Amino acid sequence: MDNNSVKDNINRIRREKKITQQEAADRLGLTRQSYNRIEKGRTSILGDNIIKLAAALGVSEEELLLGYEPQPSTAALREERERYETRLESYRKTIRHLESVVESQKDTIHVQEQVIEMQRKRIAELGGE
Description:
By secondary structure, the protein is an all-alpha fold. The chain has helices at 3-16, 21-28, 32-40, 48-57, 61-66, 74-125. Helix 2 (21-28) crosses helix 3.
């Protein structure tokens, strides 16, 4: 990564995002001329300025410096998959538990409906209806 590739990345990204040099300068609190010096490679960008410039252009610092968004490593993907599978299994257990609760409630409702029907018959037999 050299200064030329970084300035080329800045220019390319700004154009892709359809941001004018003046808009980019305004977002950074610079004059258009100062911003132009960045794109021409006459002003080097260091530290926090890289972060500010990336934010102003709406990209990551990596994309600004490298010209592309790096892909996560295989190990990172494996860890993310393990976390996902752990959460998924937890959700499945919760669903199974809730399904059993629903079935239990259905049984309770059925029994209560039978009790109500028996009470209605008893009331009718006693001449209440």
